[in-house]
Amino acid sequence: MKNKINNLLLEEGFRYFSEMSYEAYLPYQEKIECSDLTYVMLCAYDEEYPYLVKKVRNGLVITGVDTKFEAFCVIIPLEQEELPFIYEEMAALFQRLGISMRLGTMSEQYMRLLEHHPLTEKISFQEERSDYVYDIGEYLDLEGGKNARKRRDLNKIKSEYDNICVKTIQDFQMEKETILNVMDKWCEGYDCDLCQYGCERKIIEKILNSDLINELYGAVLYIENRPEMFAIAQIINDTCYLYFKKSVGRIQGLFYYFEYEFLQPLKNLRYVNFEEDMGLPGLREYKRRRHPVKMIDKYDIQIRGMKEIRNRKKGRSPEDEKDGCLERAIGEDETFIIKLWQEAFHDSETYIRKFLDAHRNTEADGNRVFLWKEHGLCRAMLFAIPAKIKEMGRLKNARYLYAIATEKEYRGNKYLSQMLPELKKIFGEECILFLVPEPGIIPYYESLGFIGQRALPGFLLRREMRDKAEVMAASEGLMLKKIIDAFEYCSLRNANLADRDYVIWDEHEISWALYDISMAQGAAYVVECEYGKYLLAGIRKENGKESCFQVIETTLPGQLLEEVKMELMDRLECTELMQQELFYMVEQGKTRRELYLSLVLNG
Q1: Which of 97, 429, 463, 488 is the most buried (most CB within 10 A)?
Q2: Is the pLDDT of residue 261 over 60?
């Protein structure tokens, strides 16, 4: 896909970005604010999104293909009056070449110039792509109550570490090995699959091996003469653009100490740009807590006429695309699925690919992942996993919905409400089941026709309550053994739940459940006491010195679980044992309320 688009554009006078010198790009760099469009960053990520450039009228057009294999272009006019004319010329070119293209990384100033243009079909804004910009004077200010946390961080580090210093990099060639060593140690504690824009280690090494090191500003933090943290930045006009900042460990207070020392030599500048937060909750909280003076928002513009190009490539008419459509995923959709899954659930690519392998083109069921496509582009997904419901002693087929997600910028478009009727057509009278992740979204799912079946009896027991609780005789002689065999898992479920309504999984699905909980630092156990053998499965969550075992399934009756939970906490070495889930379902063609139990229900 990338090569095909690039070949078409090369024939139209575009050239590889790598052929453009730093000096030739400088006039355009003066016109941008966001760090994505500095020459250093364009060079750094040139292999991930093979950029092409072309001078058009009095401006520069940069094109690339993103991780979703969607083509985009960026327009940087030297005079903003030229922007609409360049926009029109590029839109005509893309139409003629049959390339579906969007306008990307558009500043708010330029977006306002084009928002009412006849060629503009839709404007999108993604909060996680906004750059955080701080006033350097304010960032270094330690006076007053609002800066108490800064003072506390600085004092903490100074009191705990006698031999600590931040050294400005005078020669990047001399410090290259130091920087890469810190980067290697950082990589050891990080999942490479979470690098959204390519391998940062390779990107940093690429910059350090280029002539661009003469344009950079940086520093390294040492503790006991051991490199602990580094930063690589660039000064453009009155702003320091902080491109990379990596630390070996997570020492509380160290980040602000480093930033304070890093910015001291730059206090005559006005701003520092800390780039975007990528939607990561911890990073977003940290950057917001530092009180940015402004946010540099970036917009995408969907160009009118691109929809027809996509329709032609998919063999669809405009009428087919009017309301979108539900389709089973195919091989070329895998990139979208992985990216959306990571965005919504933050799992590693390794984990996602294993799940896809387990549910792709099964012999009896086909591909279990369904995509909602609008204008030929993927917008949302869900998995429909086969299961059975035991109802009054009879089995009936069901579909368990899993990994339901929509692209951030398209949430609120009610795609699920459009997907459900299509799923009903496909699966007929099968029940559609769904596990509600949090109570706050229940009204939404009720509006879609889901019927609330039962709130599970949740409990939360802390260690300090132990002295007040009675541990009954049932816990004496209690045994706990890990389950590694799917057949044993299934047998325990069926033996203990035979007289109740519950969701039944086959050995294949149970095998996945065992793998799933082990990936989440959890496990399944046989609980054996004087009353018999029972199943207990869950995941472990650590919070500092506290640990919690969250039960996702158990066949222990509620009363018995209350009797043995203290002993279980000891055996599981956790300070909390908790279970708090809700299960919802849609009953096809019926209005009566039935009671069904999900994989997490304890009876």
Answers
A1: 488
A2: yes
